[in-house]
């Protein structure tokens, strides 16, 4: 999940990797079980418009007009005083009039915030070959993924093992639910189209059906009060199921006093407990408003500015910055997404490169660079700042960076020469032509607070 320059302190190098491909077709019901319009959530059916549909002027009056899409929550954002910026082909809220970016960040850590991630792309893959197809293009052990469970994964290039996009994959009854990044929309579309063509040619007896959930809403409820707030708008059976829904798990749920069906997934991008909620297009605005009305003193809308500082503190990658086509999962510190059986048997794109990188150096393995966190003294080190050793020789580069509202220090993420990646290693970062002292730090920069399933001894 490329950022744009905006005239907001703390946002310039901080833009979130979120995702969706919406289209102006609000009558489509994208869940497998059709739902009628909410009986009490009587919102007007919302329209989502894809990029190239609306001409929106931004930046300054001198700026050229850009053609941007809108999610189904655009009007609601406007109602709450959103300041919009271009992101991933959409006009997205960066902050709201009630809270600045730093205040919104703290609000999320202390209470709960609601993020519109409806620009992200939601997919369904089904059919006899769906599991094997997804295992071909990702390094994940999907064969052992339980129903209503999910995993972070990556789409991979065939020969190099480079990351096409990072993604979340969940197994649902009879299909897989996959979410990809807005900024990679066209690239992913071309990639998946080509890969499916290869698959059907190689395995004609294992067809795969691919469906993009056009217009489907997606919101992220994040923060320590998230579960309590979500429970207020769910019917009783869904509330009971919510109590035992752990990080990385999903469940179908019904909104209270309605027949609006949603998919609730426990997880998120901030390091806090929280949920991502996939909502039929006709109910997206109404469900979001219901959540806001149910917790007026505890829940606030939050934009891309706070989301980026939150994700960086949580050590989360932003595609196009911390991950790209030339980066493998091993270099990116994502080796944990490569399943044990996949390590043993391969069978995924780029496996010859990735499995070799996983080997010990004595066996000819390893990588030349590794993703690390940095604590930087003085001015914050932004994307593109060089990491150098004491002699001034370049040994890496910063890919994301900003002042951390929670840590109260300047934090950065980047890639550094293998051997210099251990926590506590002292290096320098070149900021505005001056060397600044920095220390390699473990990530996340703050403890994660996910609601995880208790481990059994």
Automatic annotation (TrEMBL):
Subcellular localization: Mitochondrion
A GO biological process held by the record: glycine catabolic process
GO MF annotation terms: aminomethyltransferase activity; transaminase activity
Aminomethyltransferase C-terminal domain segment(s): 369-445
Taxonomy, superkingdom: Eukaryota
Binding site residues for substrate: 276
Record-linked SUPFAM superfamilies: Aminomethyltransferase beta-barrel domain (SSF101790), Folate-binding domain (SSF103025)
Family to which this protein belongs: Belongs to the GcvT family.
Entry function: The glycine cleavage system catalyzes the degradation of glycine.
Protein name: Aminomethyltransferase
Organism, scientific name: Periconia macrospinosa
């Amino acid at each position: 999940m490329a950022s744009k320059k905006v005239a907001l302190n703390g946002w310039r190098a901080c833009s979130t990797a979120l995702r969706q491909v919406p289209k102006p077709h609000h009558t489509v019901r994208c869940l497998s079980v059709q739902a009628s319009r909410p009986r009490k959530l009587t919102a007007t059916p919302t329209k989502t418009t894809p990029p190239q549909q609306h001409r929106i002027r931004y930046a300054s009056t001198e700026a050229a007009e850009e053609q941007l899409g809108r999610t189904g929550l655009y009007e609601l954002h406007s109602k709450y005083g959103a300041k919009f910026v271009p992101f991933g082909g959409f006009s997205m809220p960066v902050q709201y009039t009630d809270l600045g970016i730093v205040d919104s960040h703290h609000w999320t850590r202390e209470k709960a915030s609601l993020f519109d991630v409806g620009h992200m792309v939601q997919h369904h893959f089904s059919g006899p070959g769906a599991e094997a197809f997804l295992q071909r293009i990702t390094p994940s052990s999907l064969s052992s993924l339980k129903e209503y469970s999910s995993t972070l994964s990556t789409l991979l290039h065939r020969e190099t093992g480079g990351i096409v996009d990072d993604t979340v994959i969940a197994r649902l009854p009879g299909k897989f639910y996959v979410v990809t990044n807005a900024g990679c929309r066209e690239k992913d579309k071309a990639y998946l189209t080509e890969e499916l063509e290869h698959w059907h040619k190689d395995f004609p007896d294992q067809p795969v059906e691919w469906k993009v959930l056009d217009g489907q809403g997606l919101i992220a409820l994040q923060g320590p009060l998230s579960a309590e707030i979500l429970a207020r708008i769910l019917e009783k059976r869904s509330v009971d199921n919510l109590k035992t829904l752990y990080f990385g798990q999903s469940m179908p749920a019904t909104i209270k006093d309605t027949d609006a069906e949603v998919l609730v997934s426990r997880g998120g991008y901030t390091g806090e407990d929280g949920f991502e909620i996939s909502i039929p297009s006709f109910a997206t605005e109404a469900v979001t408003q219901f959540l806001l009305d149910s917790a007026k003193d505890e829940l606030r809308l939050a934009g891309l500015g706070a989301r980026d500082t939150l994700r960086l503190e949580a050590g989360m990658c932003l595609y196009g910055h911390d991950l790209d086509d030339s980066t493998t999962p091993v270099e990116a510190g994502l080796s944990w997404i490569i399943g044990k059986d996949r390590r043993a048997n391969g069978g995924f794109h780029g496996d010859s490169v990735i499995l070799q990188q996983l080997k010990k150096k004595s066996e000819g393995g390893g990588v030349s660079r590794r993703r690390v966190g940095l604590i930087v003294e003085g001015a914050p080190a932004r994307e593109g700042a060089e990491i150098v050793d004491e002699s001034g020789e370049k040994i890496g580069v910063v890919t994301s960076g900003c002042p951390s509202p929670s840590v109260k220090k300047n934090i950065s993420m980047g890639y550094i020469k293998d051997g210099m990646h251990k926590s506590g290693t002292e290096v320098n970062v070149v900021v505005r032509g001056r060397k600044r002292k920095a220390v390699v730090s473990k990530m996340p920069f703050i403890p994660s607070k996910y609601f995880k399933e208790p481990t059994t001894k």
